[in-house]
Amino acid sequence: MEKPFSFFLVTDTHYFDSEFKRTGEAYEKRSRTDQKCVAETPAIIDAGFAQIAQDKNTDVILIPGDLVYRGEYQSHVGFRERLYKLKEQGKKIYLITARHDYCEDGEPVEFDGDELIPVKGMPRDELRDFYKDFGFDDAISEHRESMSYVAQIADGIRLLALNCDGDCKDFKGLWDDQMQWALSEIQKAHEAGEYIFAMTHYPLLPFAPIMHLIGDAKLTDWEKRANEFADAGLDLIFTGHMHAQAITDYTTEKGNTITDVQTGCFVGCPCAYRKVTFEGSTVNIKSYTIDDFDYDKQGKTAEEYFQWRFDRMINLKMDEILPKPAKKILDGFTLKKLGRLLCFKVDKSIESRLAKEVGIELVRNIFIGNEPYVKGTPMYEAMATLLKRLHPVTHIVERKMRAKSPVLSDIDSFVLSMIGDEKQRDYDTVLKINRK
């Protein structure tokens, strides 16, 4: 019987080096509408890596891209130093790069007062050799054109590390020759009697109905590739990019299933990472968050600080969209008032909650995962009743969108599926795999 094997999964570190200036209105303008904490990245990453280093029994760490903020060369230098420190502590790291890791259009900058000051960027074609000690030089097979590789990460287990930069513009996916190489590597692993799983930066699968409508929430060619992978016997892939905790399944017409385990941003709410353990034909997945970090958090705990940053972002985006009269009404509009307006009663436990605050929470929950408002909860019942009241309007939208966007052909299901998750497995779960 195979020995248990574990690794940590960390993604979207977006490191911004401590040498760079990050103060003033120029930085605040950028920071206010950003989920990730950029100025804080050195402190957050150091704290998170220290937590991971405490586990002396788990030596492997996977990082599927967006290592630095916006392609700054010095950020790569500072981030790589932290990887070497982990390596000195006995960790083996396998990574791929993604679109935040190089500068092709425009220069990366630091922030000083009102000014954006250009800094040296990292060319994409230098990334492979820059990070050669973290997966690339240990590869048993490599697709150099795309910066993808296969590594033997444990006895009987291989990693298929897929870069999905595509054309570095609109196409965010896998080229046909890259895919043929990947399928060939899957076949080779199976013929050798070994289990193989994948990681890529962009999600393979849209993890919520609304993600079908967001262009870069999944690979450009996601459905085609999901079918090809699953039917080739690949049943597990780890992804990042959307800064969300989510576990999503897809089953092909032939009955083969692939599971996309998407992990939240390491430096933005909920600042999560995963520990994954293979034991026989099961994969045990447990999630952790960063307990604390050395930074002025304005008297908040780490969890409160990350949530405050996320909520501020959504608040500001709502302020940009809504006209001033609507904002003024919403600022004091409770769920009780909403119920009265549409002639239904809201449960006393939630009637005093501000509608605007609930809206922000529902958006946050999509990214945090394990959305709590399932059938039987007061919030679910209030939302279901609200949708019934609005059905004369939403039914018109459904008819118009049926051909263009099937996910909007049933708006009630579309909305309710995003506020409550009956499976509750986005953080911790046990998966069955085809490990023969």
User: How many structural domains can be distinguished in the coordinates?
Assistant: 2
Q: Helicity level, as a percent range?
A: 25-40%
Mass-distribution shape: globular
Beta-strand proportion: 15-25%
Mean pLDDT: 95
Structure keywords:
single chain, 436 residues, alpha/beta, Purple Acid Phosphatase, chain A, domain 2, six-stranded mixed beta sheet, 34% helix
Could you characterize the architecture of this molecule?
Helix content is 34%, strand content 19%. It has 436 residues and is α/β, with parallel strands linked by helices. The chain has two domains: 5-295, 4-Layer Sandwich (Purple Acid Phosphatase, chain A, domain 2), CATH 3.60.21; 322-419, no CATH class. The strands form three sheets. Strands 7-8-9-10-11-13-12 form a seven-stranded mixed sheet, covered by helices on one side.
Summary of the model, kept short:
With 436 residues, this protein is α/β, with parallel strands linked by helices. Helix content is 34%, strand content 19%. Helix 7 packs across helix 10.
